[in-house]
Design brief:
Elements lengths: L1 E4 L2 E7 L9 E6 L8 H10 L1 H14 L7 E5 L7 E6 L10 H18 L4 E4 L11 H18 L6 E6 L2 H14 L3
Parallel strand pairs: 2-7, 3-5, 3-6, 6-7
Antiparallel strand pairs: 1-2, 4-5
Bound molecules: adenosine-5'-diphosphate (ADP).
The site of adenosine-5'-diphosphate (ADP) has 21 residues, from α1.
Length: about 180
């Protein structure tokens, strides 16, 4: 599904984000920036050593990446030129400002992308794997934040893709994007 909105093409797809053809892909990293399981492992495997080397350099300079913030590296061997690594919140029953923290991931990623002249990027469903964030709630935070960004930054991004790995997220995003942008 794709919807043109305020000069940005918003797309929902299902698949492996390491195969995305956007200029930048987003990694659901952890604060250590040293790689992990899930999408993080897949990105480091597909992108190769150069991504990890840059993550280690950033970690040495600033001690990792706090929840809700984002850092940028090369895309290494990926088709994407860049990877933006952001750290989602661990779901804690909703008692730890998780929605705000997850929104910060999407917003700070878009701001960092724009600062680097990036015009197309792909997001995974941050925090909905190992970090246990309920998929429907995570999609609301993600879509609302991205749409708010697009409304306030008309046509800065040409294309924003939500790459859903599992069918459940895919269906949630199809419905969510359709409901939020009905024109
Ligand atoms: P987190 O720790 O933020 O929950 P995970 O990597 O465990 O990160 O999961 C985040 C989301 O990424 C989940 O919805 C998971 O299904 C999805 N995912 C896992 N591998 C890939 C992949 N190769 N491409 C896109 N999404 C993926």
């Amino acid at each position: 599904m794709e919807k043109a909105y305020r000069g940005t093409l918003l797309e929902v797809t299902q698949g492996d984000i390491t195969q995305s053809l956007t200029e930048c892909i987003v990694n659901a990293a952890n604060s250590s920036l040293l790689g992990g399981g899930g999408v993080d492992g897949a990105i480091h495997r597909a992108g190769g050593r150069r991504i990890l080397d840059e993550c280690i350099r950033i970690r040495n300079e600033r001690g990792g990446c706090p929840v809700g913030e984002a850092v940028i590296t090369t895309g290494g061997n990926l088709k994407a030129k860049y990877v933006i690594h952001t750290v989602g919140p661990v779901w804690n029953g909703g008692t730890g400002n998780e929605a705000e923290k997850l929104g910060n991931c999407y917003r700070n990623t878009l701001l960092l992308a724009a600062k680097n002249g990036i015009t197309s990027l792909s997001f995974p469903n941050i925090s909905t794997g190992i970090y246990g964030y309920p998929k429907d709630k995570a999609a609301v935070a993600a879509l609302e934040t991205v749409i708010d960004y697009v409304e306030n930054n008309n046509a800065v991004m040409e294309r924003i893709q939500f790459v859903c790995y599992d069918r459940e997220n895919y269906d949630i995003y199809l419905q969510g994007l359709g409901a939020l942008i009905s024109q």
